[in-house]
Amino acid sequence: MRAAIAGASGYAGGEILRLLLSHPEIEIGALTAASSAGSPLGAHHPHLAPLADRVLLDTTPGTLAGHDVVFLALPHGQSAAVAAGLGDGTLVVDCGADFRLADPAAWEHFYGGAHAGTWPYGLPELPGHRDPLRTATRIAVPGCYPTAVTLAMFPAFAAGLAEPDLVVVAASGTSGAGRSPKPNLLGSEVMGSATAYAAGGVHRHTPEMEQNLSPLAGAPVRVSFTPVLAPMSRGILATCTAPAKPGVTPRELRETYEAAVKDEPFLRLLPEGQWPATSMTLGANTAALQVALDERAGRVVAVVAIDNLTKGTAGGAIQSANLALGLPEETGLPLNGVAP
Amino acid sequence: MRAAIAGASGYAGGEILRLLLSHPEIEIGALTAASSAGSPLGAHHPHLAPLADRVLLDTTPGTLAGHDVVFLALPHGQSAAVAAGLGDGTLVVDCGADFRLADPAAWEHFYGGAHAGTWPYGLPELPGHRDPLRTATRIAVPGCYPTAVTLAMFPAFAAGLAEPDLVVVAASGTSGAGRSPKPNLLGSEVMGSATAYAAGGVHRHTPEMEQNLSPLAGAPVRVSFTPVLAPMSRGILATCTAPAKPGVTPRELRETYEAAVKDEPFLRLLPEGQWPATSMTLGANTAALQVALDERAGRVVAVVAIDNLTKGTAGGAIQSANLALGLPEETGLPLNGVAP
Amino acid sequence: MRAAIAGASGYAGGEILRLLLSHPEIEIGALTAASSAGSPLGAHHPHLAPLADRVLLDTTPGTLAGHDVVFLALPHGQSAAVAAGLGDGTLVVDCGADFRLADPAAWEHFYGGAHAGTWPYGLPELPGHRDPLRTATRIAVPGCYPTAVTLAMFPAFAAGLAEPDLVVVAASGTSGAGRSPKPNLLGSEVMGSATAYAAGGVHRHTPEMEQNLSPLAGAPVRVSFTPVLAPMSRGILATCTAPAKPGVTPRELRETYEAAVKDEPFLRLLPEGQWPATSMTLGANTAALQVALDERAGRVVAVVAIDNLTKGTAGGAIQSANLALGLPEETGLPLNGVAP
Amino acid sequence: MRAAIAGASGYAGGEILRLLLSHPEIEIGALTAASSAGSPLGAHHPHLAPLADRVLLDTTPGTLAGHDVVFLALPHGQSAAVAAGLGDGTLVVDCGADFRLADPAAWEHFYGGAHAGTWPYGLPELPGHRDPLRTATRIAVPGCYPTAVTLAMFPAFAAGLAEPDLVVVAASGTSGAGRSPKPNLLGSEVMGSATAYAAGGVHRHTPEMEQNLSPLAGAPVRVSFTPVLAPMSRGILATCTAPAKPGVTPRELRETYEAAVKDEPFLRLLPEGQWPATSMTLGANTAALQVALDERAGRVVAVVAIDNLTKGTAGGAIQSANLALGLPEETGLPLNGVAP
Asked: What are the protein's GO molecular function terms (chains A, B, C, D) (predicted)?
């Protein structure tokens, strides 16, 4: 099978390529870009040694045609037009936000503009979402923060162990902010410093978390989300806490999470007492989880670490694509991180 | 006036010295240590060029005698014995935890062992705490996390704008974990990674936050606290959120915080829309604050940045010592950070 | 005395302001900028709390008039025009490159375009350069790398201990590359990575090193210079090595350096065996030096650490300005770094 | 084939395991340690999710017996005794220094104590060294710095383009200093700072560089080596410069390097003008090279980036083991890095 990547010069595109280089069933086809078209990939992703001499093409229906799967790693708002040029015979996997939200009002509130529609949501671990992906021809890859938060909290909500009032504070590496140069993303600014941003209920990933978790909780989950930019290139460490339902015990909580991860190849519940670190998952498609019951405060506290570019974007995209292409879900996806 | 520093080879001791080097009224006297006694300070704090040749003495009543103020930067549990050898004519400022908590049960639960007692609490900004410091001869310097969280939330609780159910997630630089070499604090481990630790309600600073805020809230404040080790040497960025009381408006919240910081030399409410970064306060005794009302989630969200070694430890110690010594509170304390 | 800063929104401008905030004799006057004019300083330098509400003015003769000293922190090529509008009664201190080089051919080779001229060179430690600064009305602040390298090697060359064939490899923090956002300076790119750049003899600071050292060596010093971008915001660590002249002994080398730094307030020769780290000098105007004779390789090896923004730019500028303004050279300049 | 790893709890051991997890022909057998024996691997290398429950055994002849290959990642001085217990039917690959140096006097001068002997040197790219590895039963893995420097300079010396007077300044990530906790390796100390160490001709890797390059140069190569600890976990960026032989041209130099890397799977000469960054090779077995002729200074300047743990240790070990085991040299070794 052959894959094209639209938006190959950015971080998401680069990570898809890194993973596909080790994928035994998918060959790398056309690589396209906007302003970078015409330049060699090595000018943008010099770490991808085997692809350094590949030249970026323009993102057009013609250059993307003839592939089994097309990964879109484009700025928000551009995916619909590109996808329209690709028939149903081509699997289209969109790493952007355009097709994630089901609720047009939520889209309009947080993103503005017209809602493009909804595609099957590419988070196989979310109960009920794996099977539809097996027959999908269009997939919306979840946002990096919603991936982390959903994986941390779906077991508690699905088992009725937590009240639908969720607080999330998540530290993210800077690659989550993309590659467009902005002064606040300069190394000089971010090294040695942590900073909150888009706090107070305005971050665009908030409704996506609510959309994922509310059906499991059987009630609208209210999410208070504060993202923090941390001085690291990759990784999300999300702390998620909700009031425990009355009578929940530590053992019940632990066993619920053990059951939830048991058959999931990419979910890993750490031994009791060991808390997630983003280095555990650097470059891996794994989510490292830990959960505890804070009995003094009456809260479930779940912490998750993922690599925002791997499980949070490119790895999640390939995991869902594997399903839609009829491949084993784990194909070509690393389980172990790169550390120290 | 002359100051001695017991525990001068550690990070807290080093930061006290750095600040005292610019203090116009306090001269640096004896510097003492335990296993490092006999070595030059330059072997431990090579950044303190003017003191590089000073030799560390043993920590004994004799070496600490004859100073106007003695700063204790000792491992937990050692301060009482050292302070006992110093008369009431000497101001003793303890950077350790020994005398912070009023409740022996809380001490025993979180620290274990016998409670040493309670000293005047060195957080002048906490309503009701400035005046007692003016006549104190013993001062307990707050913990770094409680300093941050108390400064972020005291206005909301004192004004009755928030329910007493507080969630705190705070990222800290590694210097907060001290200088004893442990594998998990190696640069190789911490660079490029964020990790939670002591989560689930077990961190020792939790009861101190509750002790500070409950009297203001007029009810026991329950605190769910998750500390995060971030890949930076200094700084705490604490996100604090509690349910808003019914009817609170954004304007009311903003004005409450504006009033709370108005006469405080070291509290700084950022312009609306600008969120704190730890780099704003690196090396400074300033706390940078921002607050917002998340109306969707019904929550007050306050974020604060401090330097854990400055406002969070050594600067806070000197600020309180200034008061007790009859000096202007701001004497010798930097208002601006070092950035980028 | 009052100072204006042209280019106050950049890193050099910000560091000048940080230092002037603690300067007892110089008051901060007009702050000017180009595209940032009209915005508050707090939007650019939120660490400078006391100046957060100051509004940036346009850089014009009018806004800069009426100050005792004007610091120029402008892009290369703009200083001459601005200085022309300021009479000889105003001290003008240029942090740019425009007036550093005496040799028009060197200027043209490395910078291109017309040579603007030569101003007194603001490196008081360089033999013969302190006295002219006392009467200067125009000062060219050295480049950050030439400052480091000159301070490391002037003693060896002045004492005839080294052959005029110098190899320099210097790691620099990213703030040396300025604040204009470029993809290669993004935090995502620089964190966790070291990279060489402008290697092979093309870096513009090369002729400035040669200009400084050749007169002391009594022969043209050839400099092979390789700059390395290191994952840190501040600091230069320069390793400088030249063949030892025949017969040089370790003791002779050590004593030469001891004599060279003896009366210099900002030069610090570390104890034998302790090598410089940039953290020793973070935010300080100090240069930390060490030197050794590698007898196997027959080479003098000198290593120096400075803060590129402080001693390497803003601190050096103020040090020279102090001399020209008739103040003690050390006025307002920190000797100690901020660490850890 | 099955591999045992002695010293599996350290950084070298962990990296060997990370690579073997993707190796199609080598199965992971016994994992042994010293003081960590009895603990699960997940306590030491939580990034190696698939091996988290494997328990570390004692390092004894019994636990290591019965494997096709045994990788030794032990402190210096311990390899000989362990290897003695393993027959010639077992390939033993030593990541330590014990068997690298041929000259007992060099060993004694730099390491002290008795010289253990010399094993085939595991750097296949070094001319003349690939074939002996195909029949080796004992392999000495090169040091990380000598790997970098040798790969950067062997083409120039082998082609007679450079004088045998080499200056090397190399920045290394902290993982090169190992996992034993020492105060100077704490994150608080290393983040935000670069520091020289073991400068002035005393670093133990110096004679190994000379041993590798002198035969190619046809004369004793004198090496002046200054290592720099950089604030990153992984990576070596080495700048290597030697006087150019008279008449060397840029084209000749470029073509020499092009020819040298042409058939080498792990050597990559970057396009002209692009300089190596350690991020290009993070986690990869690739060395990224660039070379230039500095005609002003009359010098060859070669810069190389490797991952000290991969190509510099564990990847190099597996590369050589592949040869000795009759496998294709590239088996299981990543060509691309993980970035950003």
From this structure: N-acetyl-gamma-glutamyl-phosphate reductase activity; NAD binding; NADP+ binding
Q: Find chain C residues with C-beta within 8 A of A230's C-beta.
A: none
**pLDDT, position C76:** 87
Sheet (strand D195-196) strand order:
D195-196, D222-229, D165-172, D236-243, D299-306, D287-294, D267-269
φ/ψ of C326, rounded to 5, equals 80, 15
Q: Is the pLDDT of residue A76 over 90?
A: no
pLDDT surpassing 90 at residue D76: no
CATH of region D2-141+313-325: 3.40.50.720
For residues A156-172, one letter each, b for 16 or more C-beta atoms within 10 angstroms of the residue's C-beta and e for the rest, the string is bbbbebbbbbbbbbbbb
| Nearest-by-Cβ selection for D48 from A51, A277, A336 | A336
pTM value surpassing 0.80: yes
- What is the C-alpha end-to-end distance of chain B, expressed in Å? 34
Nearest to B191 among D179, D182, D231 (CB): D231
Going A148 to A199 to B266 to B100, the CA torsion angle's sign is negative
Of the candidates C222, C264, C218, C260, the residue with the CA atom closest to the CA atom of residue C241: C222
Amino acid residing at C161: L
Whole-number Å distance between alpha carbons of A245 and A223: 17
Is residue B115 exposed (0-12), middle (13-18) or buried (19+ Cβ within 10 Å)?
A: middle
Domain A145-306, what architecture?
Answer: 2-Layer Sandwich (3.30)
D240 noted as active-site residue: no
Which structure tokens are listed for D304? 């190389």
Tell me how crowded residue D159 is: count the other CB atoms within 10 A of its CB: 18
The verdict on whether omega for the bond into residue C340 sits within 30 degrees of 0, i.e. cis, is: yes
Q: Quote the CA–CA distance of D34 and B186 in Å, as a whole number.
A: 20
Give the residue on B whose Cα is nearest the Cα of C20.
B336
pLDDT in tens, D15-46: 999 999 999 999 999 999 999 999 999 999 99
Q: Is omega for the bond preceding D127 within 30 degrees of 0, making it cis?
A: no
Is there a contact between A42 and D281 if contact means CB atoms under 8 Å apart?
Answer: no
Give chain B positions within 8 Å (CB) of A232: 191-194, 231
What are the residue ranges spanned by the domains of chain B? 2-141+313-325, 145-306
Q: In angstroms, rounded to a whole number, what is the distance separating the alpha carbons of residues D269 and D315?
A: 19
Dump pLDDT digits (tens) for C198-213: 999 999 999 999 999 9
Res. B76 pLDDT band, cuts 50 70 90: confident
Question: Do the chains contact at A191 and C191, CB–CB below 8 Å?
Answer: yes
